[in-house]
């Protein structure tokens, strides 16, 4: 009984994903959804299981399992554009398929429950950026967040223009947009990480998906909270945070609160177990 209690979270995650997998499989009559959501659910549940077992690379294991699956299998092999352009494309065509479902679950409605868990555990861009040397930002944060609105608008205008110009074979263009878009993201992300000495600079200033993620994660059910009775205001949590979040403030308006990627570095490093 104690074992079930200890591992309740991974069991719950597995059950929730399995419920989504079976529902979509039966309602959309497509076995892909059963495989897809089962795989993601098992990967995340495994990561939480490893975290409970205090395995220090637990988050990276999930990041690689989910990120590589999305990039290599769904992107390269199945030809699904899972980037934001793919979302616009399927939205305009009115097709409720992998990219739209993925965005709805991971990036639009899911963050109401699990915040920016996507960014900490599944994103294939961050999966690569997190290998770079600046896990903890070495320079103060810059006021460049406005760039994300430009990249967001550019992605929308790009896809809308293809439809308005009635360009043929848009599906093929979307596949190439996925390949080129990823190369650009990796190139810019790596260059910014070194320029700002911050692995997550791309996430903080450029990524268009944060236009969805930030407002939705403001209301996130799951968030790191600080026990003020235990906290001694040593500031270590803020120093180790890759996203510059002031996690000691429990209000929704905490500094950079909508940037939290739930990586749990603050929790692991708090000397007083206050988080
Ligand atoms: S901010 Fe964008 S690039 Fe960074 S982890 Fe989130 S989705 Fe990925
Ligand atoms: S690391 Fe822990 S004790 Fe130190 S400021 Fe953060 S929550 Fe408080
Ligand atoms: S270190 Fe803590 S506050 Fe910072 S992103 Fe990770 S979980 Fe969120």
Distinctive features:
Alpha-Beta Plaits, binds iron/sulfur cluster, mainly alpha, single chain, 275 residues, globular, 0% strand
Strand content: under 5%
* Total DSSP E strands: 0
Amino- and carboxy-terminal Cα gap:
26 Å
Which structural category fits the helices and strands? mainly alpha
Give the rounded overall mean pLDDT. Answer: 91
Number of H/I helices = 15
How would you describe the shape?
globular
Order of helical and strand elements: HHHHHHHHHHHHHHH
**Could you tell me which ligands this complex binds, including any ions or cofactors?**
iron/sulfur cluster
Residue stretches low in confidence (pLDDT < 50, at least 5 long) are none
Mind describing the biggest β-sheet?
none
Radius of gyration: 19 Å
Helix content: 55-70%
Description:
The protein is mainly α and 275 residues long. Among the domains are: 82-217, no CATH class; 224-275, Alpha-Beta Plaits (2-Layer Sandwich). It is 63% helix and 0% strand. It contains 15 helices and no strands. Helix 2 (8-28) runs antiparallel to helix 3 (31-52), helix 3 (31-52) packs antiparallel against helix 4 and helix 5 (84-93) packs parallel to helix 10 (147-164). The radius of gyration is 19 Å and the shape is globular. The model has no long low-confidence stretch (mean pLDDT 91). Bound molecules: iron/sulfur cluster (3 copies). One iron/sulfur cluster binds next to helix 9 and helix 12.
